[in-house]
């Protein structure tokens, strides 16, 4: 398969949604959703909103086969305000679809969405320690094991170096293939309980925060070069 790198544009939104769905079936948690695509749309646009690095792997048919979206944490007051406005708009839209019944049973849809929000707050609790965050990283099952994930990560790290971003993080859950991140040099910073909106703990899985100090990669690379 021939692929090339493209920057996210709205024309790639549906293709990004399809790629997310191929790995994470968010709709399984909803009760008979009529239009499950809205939760995928919300998820992608939420990641896009906070990200300055918007790298896609696109095939010859203009279909998205890989995504890495990353953000810079310290962007200044004005930009933070603009991000918050877009975030409010995205939240308004998803609540509107919940009220319309597009995501199935309203009570269940509210519960699932509020859990997503609560888990995200848990995952972002240590954000102030870092200069940047990987908001979304996914490669199509068709391309896994062929070095495309490393390619996306290398481009992201180059982006960070050019902008003086030294420490980055991401958070995920134990039901994901989190060992995947260790291959890129990430180390576990913290593990945390996932808190439900009613303050109870989700015992089915835990959250993990991974961190990466980019200058450490350069030191490690130089050591390997000398040893070689």
TrEMBL record:
Residues 40-215 form the N-acetyltransferase domain. InterPro entries: Acyl_CoA_acyltransferase (IPR016181), GNAT_dom (IPR000182), YpeA/RimI_acetyltransf (IPR050680). Keywords: Acyltransferase, Transferase. One of its GO terms (molecular function) is acyltransferase activity, transferring groups other than amino-acyl groups. The keyword Acyltransferase applies. It comes from the Bacteria. This is N-acetyltransferase domain-containing protein. It holds the Pfam family Acetyltransf_1. The keyword Signal does not apply. PANTHER family: ACETYLTRANSFERASE.
